[in-house]
Design a protein that fits this description.
Elements (H helix, E strand, L loop, with lengths): L5 H11 L2 H33 L8 E5 L5 E5 L18 H6 L11
């Protein structure tokens, strides 16, 4: 076993192969590497297109700081016609629309 050399045995086996198998040995590894590179590039391009596929503009960002506080950052200039944040049910609006203070539903017959 001391005289056994893996590379010598490998190249001896390679020399004893037929010519068409030698060609396959030369073509398959580079083709595999090129195919792997093509798949990787296709995946990276598709992931970039998927991330940039959202139409519109960035309006708000939400960040959490080290003290676990949430900050809502507006990316649009604020003005009278552009409220900073629209809430589904702003506090006090339902009471003002219904004209009552108790919050209980009233039916008028």
């Amino acid at each position: 076993m001391d005289t056994y050399n893996f590379w010598q045995d490998f190249f001896d086996t390679y020399q004893s192969l037929s010519d068409w198998l030698k060609v396959l040995w030369l073509i398959v590894p580079p083709a595999f590497v090129l195919g792997l590179v093509a798949l990787t590039l296709r995946f990276r391009l598709a992931s970039r297109q998927m991330n940039s596929g959202l139409d519109g503009e960035l309006v708000y960002s939400i960040r959490r700081d080290a003290q676990n506080r949430i900050h809502i950052l507006s990316h649009m200039p604020l003005g009278d016609s552009n409220p900073p944040l629209l809430l589904a049910d702003p506090a006090g609006r339902d009471k003002a629309e219904r004209g009552r203070d108790d919050g209980l539903e009233q039916h008028i017959a």
